[in-house]
TrEMBL record:
Residues 37-91 form the P-type ATPase N-terminal domain. Keywords: ATP-binding, Cell membrane, Endoplasmic reticulum, Endosome, Lipid transport, Magnesium, Membrane, Metal-binding, Nucleotide-binding, Phosphoprotein, Translocase, Transmembrane, Transmembrane helix, Transport. The active site is at 391 (4-aspartylphosphate intermediate). The chain crosses the membrane at residues 64-82, 272-295, 326-345, 898-918, 948-970, 990-1013, 1025-1046, 1066-1088. It comes from Sander lucioperca (Pike-perch). GO terms for cellular component: early endosome; endoplasmic reticulum membrane; plasma membrane; recycling endosome. It is found in: Cell membrane; Early endosome; Endoplasmic reticulum membrane; Membrane. Its EC number is 7.6.2.1. This is Phospholipid-transporting ATPase. Mg(2+) binds at residues 391, 393, 810, 814. It is a multi-pass membrane protein. Belongs to the cation transport ATPase (P-type) (TC 3.A.3) family. Type IV subfamily. It catalyses: a 1,2-diacyl-sn-glycero-3-phosphoethanolamine(out) + ATP + H2O = a 1,2-diacyl-sn-glycero-3-phosphoethanolamine(in) + ADP + phosphate + H(+); a 1,2-diacyl-sn-glycero-3-phospho-L-serine(out) + ATP + H2O = a 1,2-diacyl-sn-glycero-3-phospho-L-serine(in) + ADP + phosphate + H(+); ATP + H2O + phospholipidSide 1 = ADP + phosphate + phospholipidSide 2.
Length: 1108
């Protein structure tokens, strides 16, 4: 790692060659020259941030980049260097506490990362060396080592597959930890490799490490031969492979996209409020410095008889003295900046996140998992979401496919049962007694049995006893096959659609028996076994949206079977065939089914020879291999005959419609971003109630662009203006709106909007498009590529007002939009989505409670916490400022240094922390039943300048009340029975006591007034413990600190001051009266304030509206 970083720093990467040579087993092909193994990085994975040696300097550097910490460091240094009125301990100890707590938290998190790294790096693996199997730690694998991996083990590095235990030289892997897809993928051994690996003498010439998971440029090798680190071996006893990329050069390590730092709206508000309080601090220091020199300019005030200046003071430069006085006042008032707020906020977020993981409603018994919090920094953002971007397949739907019906030559077929006419076919329209129709049916079923990459699951001891199951996307699905029990079989597939189609063919009498040595076997309805030689597989890709196989029958006929989306199949078949099928396809799509069209083609010997030569040549290409393959695929997949189409159902997730309805009721706009076709996605939106029957749909797709008969860009401009006039310009006010609009756009049209040929047009199109979408109730974006999903999220996130966005998806293609949004949530499936999301929930229905209940409460709690911290520090330091007007601006502290140090750490932080963790101003049931309550806190309502001004004025009122109330008490100097006079430290102690008791009583009052209308069930022992405990600790500390003569103190300012103060009845009376007077405005505000909003009456008996 160090060598690589130095190379990059010194520009070494520029001199790197484009390829690397790997010697299999570290055996050189040359017998004459000495073998010098090339140097590659080791197999260690490093995800940790710190080491034992750099933790302290690196962590301190990162912490002091935070403005508040750096500010208090400067104040501490000023106190050490300059003669200031307060001890350096008053600033140094709170700063040390904050830095230490944060360092412990970050050190613990990094220790967990080290622990996870060690689990991977120390994992035992089997390496073949000189014919012997040697167990090594994973981190000791080198490039060129031959590694053996057994079933259900993960690959320790990127391997080229050399040998497999399967007869067909294939193996199956799942890549859920890489791309979120838990389905099985087929990989192939290197062709013509010696079976005896001990005698294998070979080299591999391949490209340098690249992050692309799906491509690999290597002589005669491709991604189908590459086994990626982190993937898991399935349904194969063992494999052997040679390590080509190790450690931080594996595709998994290179592909990991570090999360960008997401800052919450609360953090931005804190920074803004902090700047205001910094201005207040500087203003106070300037005012006091100015007034000090104005006051000292009067005769006799600068050098009174009792305080003559020393010669050094007289010789000091006036401006230097003014500057040091300014710094001294800054130090004296610096506690207006709440340094402990940051650590308290972090603790609140960290501890508060456990309420999500502990919520039993989020537990899913199917996968035996609950919610997961990957970052606690965004808890409050869950209560501020304005836009939700969701994937469709696997998120809104279950991604559990079931074959529903098919259409052959325009005739609709539905499955009835196995013993009905035509072996299970029920024809609902058209004739069925023609021999030609039966031949077409059988051809269609053969296509379903042959055109796929499904594998029959190998029998294991468990499966032989329990029956085989299908393994798709990590879930087992019992095979519903109308066949005898001994013929039941399970399937492994790269897509749930493929298993559904193979099982659909099995229902109608055609059973896929498996692939052995490039021979595919199927059992017909007549119980005849047919064998086809598999010549080529033209793999599916999202651009072509289809896949094909080329097979040869026993009679010598060469056939190409192709299945894919209607948009990719229809242009490649005869149009008269399309018209017979199109109506059924559109009807099935409208009903919400996923449709695929099936076509075939006979290949002549010349056509096949040409295709075979082209495919082999393209697969050997080192450059532009994918483009060459796609060109050959497109040449072969032309002139086909359309047989029919299939309809597969992907059912909605549990409570999907209710969840979407609740989110819309909360004022959240939901956008569906999917790669599916428009008709299917549109029907899903109707089923989820995102589109209502009265919703007017504004469609901007390739179909609508082609309707006008003009150039597409002209038509795009015309439609955008038309929709903008309808949805934006002519739209009634929100409250009077009677017409809801829904917007539909596809990927091709979105590319035209975002990437217009003219830059000015592109910007204008984007603005029009965004305004239209923001005025629509819901938006459907279909045929989306992953990058386009992220582009849409980014466009909305950066729009006017910077709305808070949330993305939820379950697959690798959703990771980009999850990372782009303010808050990312993982849905049902992949592990990569889990790793990159901020929160992970098992099911879509949990999103409702996560946002409307947890999010609402998190935001209200932290908003109170932030405002309260600024308020209590203003209350604390304002009497200190006012005291300067009565002490000749001499920088005399009002409070003892111990009180200054302990105020934020011990006396006032814990009660508000407990309050911000446990407070429920509205119970969760009410929040879930009334989604409109979410709107009351939208757009950062509780941290705007209005509430901030309220809290600031409240702090000013309390500060003035405390100071002048105690001063009124001191108008009679003899406050004790013996006539003893109180001094300035007694004055400050009384003010401080009133302050601490008022702050605790304020929390008590907030909780009591909030919960009187509800009940006291939210009063926990924790609340009682921290509130009463803080007061008791203050009393105990004051007695203890002032009751003992401390030898390390030069002067004992509070010796018996607290005890003498409490012996005065007048002092007790003033303390009680000032506490009641300070709470009176809030009590009156709550008592006389009328509940507002549409649900005010029904909620009056359940909760009290927010006080502030």
């Amino acid at each position: 790692m160090l060598r690589r970083r130095l190379n990059r720093l010194l520009g070494g990467d520029e001199r790197r060659v484009d390829s690397r040579t790997i010697y299999v087993g570290h055996r050189s092909s040359s017998t004459t020259e000495a073998f010098i193994p090339p140097k590659f990085c080791d197999n260690r994975i490093v995800s940790s941030k710190y080491t034992v040696w750099n933790f302290l300097p690196k962590n301190l550097f990162e912490q002091f980049r935070r403005i508040a910490n750096f500010y208090f460091l400067i104040i501490f240094l000023v106190q050490v260097i300059v003669d200031t009125p307060t001890s350096p301990v008053t600033s140094g100890l709170p700063l040390f506490f904050v830095i230490t707590v944060t360092a412990i938290k970050q050190g613990y998190e990094d220790w967990l990362r080290h622990k996870a790294d060690n689990e991977v790096n120390k994992y035992p693996v089997t390496v073949l060396e000189q014919g012997r199997k040697i167990r090594k730690e994973s981190e000791k694998i080198k490039v060129g080592d031959v590694v053996e991996v057994e079933e259900d083990e993960t690959f320790p590095c990127d391997l080229i597959l050399l040998q497999s235990s399967r007869d067909d030289d294939t193996c199956f892997v799942t890549t859920a930890s890489l791309d979120g897809e838990s389905n099985h993928k087929t990989h192939y051994t290197v062709p013509d490799t010696e079976k005896d690996l001990e005698s294998l003498n070979a080299t591999i010439e391949c490209e340098q490490p690249q992050p692309d998971l799906y491509n690999m440029c290597c002589l005669s090798l491709g991604p189908e031969n590459l086994l990626l680190k982190g993937a898991t071996l399935k349904n194969t006893q063992k494999i052997c492979g040679v390590a080509v990329y190790t450690g931080m050069e594996t595709k998994m390590a290179l592909n990991y996209q570090g999360k960008s730092q997401k800052r919450s709206a609360v953090e931005k508000s804190i920074n803004a409020f902090l700047l205001v309080y910094l201005c207040i601090l500087v203003s106070k220091a300037l005012v006091c410095t100015t007034l000090k020199y104005v006051w000292q300019s009067k005769p006799g005030q600068d050098e009174p008889w009792y305080n003559e200046k020393t010669q050094r003071e007289k010789d000091t430069n006036l401006y230097l003295k003014m500057f040091t006085d300014f710094l001294s006042f800054m130090v004296l008032f610096n506690f207006i900046i709440p340094v402990s707020m940051y650590v308290t906020v972090e603790m609140q977020k960290f501890l508060g996140s456990f309420f999500i993981t502990w919520d039993k409603d989020f537990f899913d018994p199917e996968i035996k998992e609950g919610a997961l919090v990957n970052t606690s920094d965004l808890n409050e953002e869950l209560g501020q979401v304005e836009y939700v971007f969701t994937d469709k397949t696997g998120t809104l739907t279950q991604n559990n496919m079931e074959f529903i019906e098919c259409c052959i030559d325009g005739f609709q077929y539905k499955y009835r049962d196995a013993n009905s006419e035509l072996d299970g076919f029920c024809v609902t329209d058209g004739p069925v007694n023609k021999v030609q129709e039966k031949e077409r049916e059988e051809l269609f079923l053969r296509a379903l049995c042959l055109c796929h990459t499904v594998q029959v699951k190998e029998s294991t001891k468990q499966s032989q006893g329990d029956g085989l199951i299908d393994q798709v996307d990590g879930f087992g699905v019992d095979g519903e096959v109308p066949r005898p029990p001994q013929e039941q079989r399970g399937f492994i597939a790269s897509s749930p659609d493929e298993v559904a189609l193979v099982k659909g063919a099995m229902r109608y009498g055609f059973t896929f028996l498996g692939l052995e040595s490039k021979t595919m076997k199927i059992l017909t309805r007549n119980n005849d076994v047919e064998m086809y030689e598999l010549l080529h597989v033209l793999n599916f890709d999202p651009v072509r949206r289809r896949m094909s196989v080329i097979v040869r029958s026993k009679s010598g006929d060469t056939l190409l079977f192709c299945k894919g989306a209607d948009s990719s199949i229809f242009p490649r078949v005869r149009q008269e065939e399309v018209e017979r099928i199109r109506m059924n396809v559109e009807r099935n799509a409208t009903e919400g089914y996923r449709t695929l069209c099936v076509a075939y083609k006979y290949l002549s010997a010349e056509e096949y020879a040409q295709a075979d030569a082209g495919l082999r040549e393209a697969r050997l290409a080192l450059q532009d291999r994918e483009e060459q393959l796609i060109t050959i695929y497109n040449q072969v997949e032309t002139g086909m005959s359309l047989i029919g189409a299939t309809a597969v159902e992907d059912r909605l997730q549990e409570e999907a419609a209710e969840t979407m309805e609740a989110l819309q009721g909360a004022g959240i706009k939901v956008w569906v971003l999917t790669g599916d076709k428009m008709e299917t996605a549109k029907s899903t939106c109707y089923a989820c109630r995102l589109f209502q029957r009265n919703t007017e749909l504004l469609e901007l797709t390739v179909r609508t662009l082609d309707d006008g008969g003009r150039r597409r860009e002209e038509r795009l401009h015309e439609l955008l203006l038309e929709y903008h006039k309808k949805a934006v310009q002519d739209a009634p006010p929100v409250k009077a709106a009677t017409q809801d609009y829904g917007f539909i756009i596809d990927g091709a049209t979105l590319s035209m909007v975002l990437n217009s040929s003219s830059e000015s047009n592109s910007s204008r199109y984007k603005n029009l498009f965004l305004q239209i979408c923001q005025n629509c109730a819901s938006v459907l974006c279909c045929r989306m590529a992953p990058l386009q999903k992220a582009q849409i999220v980014k466009m909305v996130k950066n729009s006017k007002g910077s709305p808070i966005t949330l993305s939820i998806g379950d697959g690798a293609n959703d990771v980009s939009m999850i990372l782009e949004a303010h808050v990312g949530i993982k849905g049902k499936e992949g592990r990569q989505a889990v790793r990159n999301s901020d929160y992970a929930i098992p099911k879509l229905k949990h999103l409702k409670k996560l946002l409307l209940a947890h999010g609402h409460l998190y935001y209200v709690r932290i908003a109170h916490l932030v405002q309260y911290f600024f308020y209590k520090n203003l209350c604390f330091i304002l009497p200190q400022f006012l005291y300067q007007f009565f002490c000749g601006y001499s920088q005399q502290p009002l409070y003892d240094a111990a009180y200054l140090t302990m105020y934020n750490i011990c006396f006032t932080s814990m009660p508000i922390l407990a309050y911000s963790l446990l407070e429920q101003h509205i119970c969760m049931e009410v929040l879930l039943d009334n989604s409109t309550l979410y709107r009351e806190i939208a757009k950062n309502a509780m941290l705007r300048w209005g509430p901030f001004l309220y809290w600031t004025l409240l702090g000013v009122f309390h500060g003035l009340l405390f100071f002048f109330g105690v001063r009124y008490l001191f108008s009679n100097p003899a406050l004790q029975d013996n006539g003893q006079v109180f001094g300035n430290w007694s004055y400050g102690t009384i003010v401080f006591t009133v302050l601490v008791f008022t702050l605790e009583a304020n929390i008590l009052t907030c909780r009591t007034l909030t919960l009187l209308a509800l009940d006291t069930r939210h009063w926990t022992w924790i609340n009682h413990f921290v509130i009463w405990g803080s007061l008791a600790f203050y009393m105990f500390f004051s007695f203890f600190w002032g009751g003992i003569i401390w030898p390390f103190l030069k002067q004992q300012r509070l010796y018996f001051v607290f005890a003498n103060m409490l012996s005065s009845v007048s002092a007790w009376l003033v303390i009680i009266l000032l506490i009641l007077l300070s709470l009176l405005p809030e009590i009156l505000l709550v008592v006389f304030r009328k509940p507002r909003g549409p649900h005010a009456r029904q909620l009056t008996s359940k909760h009290t509206p927010l006080i502030h």
